[in-house]
Amino acid sequence: MASKIVRYQLVFHAPLSAVDACKAAIFAAGAGRYPGDGNYTECCWVTVGTGQFRPGAAANPHIGRAGVLERVEEARVETLCVGEEVTRKAVEALKKAHPYEEPSYSVFKMEDF
Q: pTM for this structure?
């Protein structure tokens, strides 16, 4: 029996001014590539919405001030990562490229039916 390709979905949020740099970083790490004959690269889904946060007293926020509720227009970016190694590299690249102290991101293991 042939081994299945393990796929993950990486989802992150970033202020609009940082989205292109974050996407470039994760794509350079191998994210956004769809396996198969089509050979698609740099694939993602982007939606724009409003994020909010209140930095704590010890925070060093990129946007806003400690103790003040902040609302920021952000993008939600969703992309495919093929294999655990690519996923880990993409998350590492995202953390380096993202301007926030603690970037908001999630990784979901995908099932193939």
A: 0.90
